[in-house]
Design a protein that fits this description.
Blueprint (H helix, E strand, L loop, with lengths): L2 E5 L3 H4 L13 E5 L2 E8 L14 E5 L10 E6 L4 E7 L2 E6 L13 E3 L2 E3 L6 E3 L5 E3 L8 E6 L5 E5 H6 L6 E3 L13 E4 L3 H12 L6 E4 L11 H4 L13 H6 L2 E4 L4 E5 L4 E4 L4 E3 L2 E4 L3 E3 L12 E2 L4 H11 L3 E5 L3 H10 L5 E6 L6 H4 L1 H12 L3 E5 L3 E7 L2 E7 L4 E3 L2 E4 L3 E3 L17 E2 L11 E3 L4 E5 L5 E3 L4 H15 L11 E6 L2 E7 L6 E7 L4 E8 L2 E8 L4 H10 L6 H14 L11
Parallel strand pairs: 1-13, 15-16, 15-21, 16-17, 21-33, 23-30, 24-25, 24-30, 25-26, 32-34
Antiparallel strand pairs: 1-12, 2-3, 3-14, 4-13, 5-6, 6-7, 7-12, 8-9, 9-10, 10-11, 18-19, 19-20, 22-31, 27-28, 28-29, 34-35, 36-37, 37-40, 38-39, 39-40
Keywords: 2Fe-2S, Apoptosis, Electron transport, FAD, Flavoprotein, Iron, Iron-sulfur, Metal-binding, Mitochondrion, Oxidoreductase, Transport
Function: Induces apoptosis through a caspase dependent pathway. Reduces mitochondrial membrane potential.
Pfam families: Pyr_redox_2, Reductase_C, Rieske
Length: 596
């Protein structure tokens, strides 16, 4: 028996291509507030039928049907590119073999119940359609048709799809943008981060063809913000999430360097700082956080940075090269910046109030192991102290004085001491905001005001994983999911959020991956070797595992994320006994319920 694979458009999307008598794509009709609106679908080139050009098609023999057992995946080479061949429940599927986010090999990921999860950052893709179902990332996988013929295995695929390894889902365009009043929009999105962009893209993917306006205080189109601390010398165009042409093609307007000063929810008007006003029908607030600043003398002087933009990160790298750097705060940002600058700066000193970094998040033992790794890379820690003064010479930073009395030489200072929600402009709006400034939303990302949604770092939302406890999860993956759920519910889909938080941090070429929500954990069960930086840590509350972190133990975090996503509970006794054996044997089938 042979397997034959060819690129096809999923039936769900193919139906959108049905033509009307006038030769144009038939519009969908959707009701918003009782008004019939027409949504005209435009096909993205990547999703087009690959067989219009026979020269673009490649066919190659790959494997025998018996070479794969149920639940197995294999990369197969077609000569000009690879595909991921999957067998599940007796059926074969084939999709792109690389995660479109950062290119992780999906064959090393986790296959479970019709989807494959990335081993690096947790993005999930439907194996039948290739569609992205959980984040991070924006694009889906190309899907290839699988055919079984006799006893040979063939793959027939588009060369373009094999080379790009990504597929942008078909999107609508705005039908008559030129007819709109500049001061009126159907959907207004405040904030142009991951949540805002995914919201806009999801609306277009669902056929929404009315006006969408995004506004941001930033001077750039949406970009990959985690890279500001992980890859600090990246230029804006290198980390852009979408090129300028994308926004033009799909009529997603982005107003840069525009700050909203107030929102009148009764009149449905957003008032900008410069006095400009814009009416809206639906509103998404995705403003994120504002970094905290130091409260000591000298905090405003030159060469003291909160890293918020690519220009900030680029400037720090330039000033820090062969100079003395002091970083205040052993946060994710502070630690990543320290790691990035360690080989470039003359010295890197890190000041932190706790006695070990990451104690509240990863626990003391993991924190000490990470701290040792940093010390081995010439980073000097000054713990259990704070900054009392920043001293200058000729207008520039010269020294950082600590409350312990220690004086550190400093040419550059990076501040990473936390952040607060950027929601001050909403105080008089009537939108429900808690005592810490977070916007309170329900499972559909709706605020207490009809038609007003919120997403991203500035919200408190019910997390199913923790019995719908209202939590704040300021992670890149979660912002993506918030944006998608908000968009679907702007279109009255009634979709509730259901995802497992997933994050990662990168330092000295090593990554810590983390899934779950470990706030309030009371114990940490560690398997592996902390000294060798090859371990997995299970965070428990009472008898239940609430989160997991690992270093050099892929894909265990993605595996556990799938278990948690399925609503299953992992008990502490599983970690102490069965998990240890599964690490030694490589068998983790017990997690999916297949083992004893």
């Amino acid at each position: 028996v042979e397997v034959k694979i060819e690129v096809v458009i999923p039936e769900k999307e193919r139906s959108k291509e049905e033509m009307s008598p006038n030769g144009k794509a038939s519009p969908l009709i959707y009701r918003v507030n009782g008004t019939a609106r027409h949504y005209h679908l435009e096909e993205h080139p990547i999703a087009s039928n690959p067989y219009h050009n026979p020269k673009d098609v490649v066919e190659a023999s790959v494997c025998h049907v018996k070479d794969l057992e149920n639940g197995q995946m294999r990369e197969v080479d077609l000569g000009c590119g690879k595909a991921l061949l999957i067998k599940e429940s007796g059926e074969f599927h084939a999709v792109g073999h690389k995660c479109p986010h950062y290119g992780a090999p999906l064959v090393k990921g986790v296959l479970s119940k019709g989807r494959v999860r990335c081993p690096w950052h947790g993005a999930c893709f439907n194996i039948g359609t290739g569609d992205i179902e959980d984040f991070p990332g924006l694009d889906s996988l190309p899907r290839f048709q699988v055919k079984i013929e006799k006893e040979k295995v063939y793959i027939r695929a588009s060369k373009q799809a094999l080379q790009t390894q990504r597929r942008t889902r078909m999107m609508a365009k705005c039908i008559s943008l030129s007819n709109y009043n500049l001061s009126s929009t159907n959907v207004l999105i405040i904030g142009a981060g991951a949540a805002g962009l995914v919201c806009a893209e999801t609306l277009r993917q669902e056929g929404f063809s009315d006006r969408i306006v995004m506004c941001t205080m930033d001077r750039h189109l949406p970009y990959d913000r985690p890279k500001l601390s992980k890859s600090m010398d990246s230029h804006p165009e290198q980390i852009a999430l979408r090129p300028k042409e994308f926004f033009c093609t799909y009529d997603i307007e982005v107003l840069t360097e525009m700050q909203v000063a107030a929102v009148d929810v009764k009149s449905k008007i957003a008032v900008f700082k410069d006095g400009f006003k814009m009416e809206y029908n639906k509103l998404l607030i995705a403003t994120g956080n504002t970094p905290k600043t130091l409260s000591c003398k000298g905090k405003e002087m030159e060469n003291v940075f909160n890293i918020r933009t690519p220009e900030d990160a680029n400037r720090v790298v330039k000033l820090a090269t062969s100079k003395n750097v002091v970083i205040v705060g052993a946060s994710f940002l502070g630690m990543e910046v320290a790691a990035y600058l360690a080989e470039r700066a003359h010295s890197v000193s890190l000041v932190e109030l706790e006695h070990v970094p990451f104690k509240k998040f990863f626990g003391e033992r993991v924190g000490r192991a990470v701290m040792k790794m940093f010390e081995n890379n010439r980073v000097k820690f000054y713990m259990q102290t704070e900054v009392s003064e920043l001293r200058e010479q000729e207008g520039k930073l010269k020294e950082v004085v600590l409350k312990s009395g220690k004086v550190l030489r400093a040419d550059v200072c990076v501040v990473g001491v936390g952040a607060v929600p950027a929601t001050g402009f909403l105080k008089q709006s009537g939108i429900n905001i808690d005592s810490k400034g977070f916007i309170v939303v329900n499972k559909m990302m709706q605020t207490n005001i009809p038609g007003v949604f919120a997403a991203g770092d500035a919200v408190m939302f019910p997390l199913a994983l923790r019995n719908n406890k209202k939590v704040n999860v300021p992670h890149w993956q979660m912002a993506h999911m918030h944006g998608r759920i908000a968009a679907l519910n702007m279109l009255a889909h009634g979709t509730e959020i259901s995802t497992v938080p997933y994050l990662w941090t990168a330092m000295f070429g090593k990554s810590i991956r983390y899934a779950g929500h470990g706030e309030g954990f009371d114990d940490v069960v560690i398997q592996g070797d902390l000294d060798e930086l090859k371990f997995v840590a299970f965070y428990t509350k009472s008898d239940e595992v609430v989160a997991v972190a690992s270093m050099n133990y892929d894909p265990i975090v993605s595996k556990v994320a799938e278990v948690l996503a399925a609503g299953r509970t992992i008990r502490k006794r599983d970690v102490d006994a069965v998990v240890f054996l599964s690490f030694r044997t490589g068998d983790m089938s017990w997690l999916t319920g297949k083992g004893s």
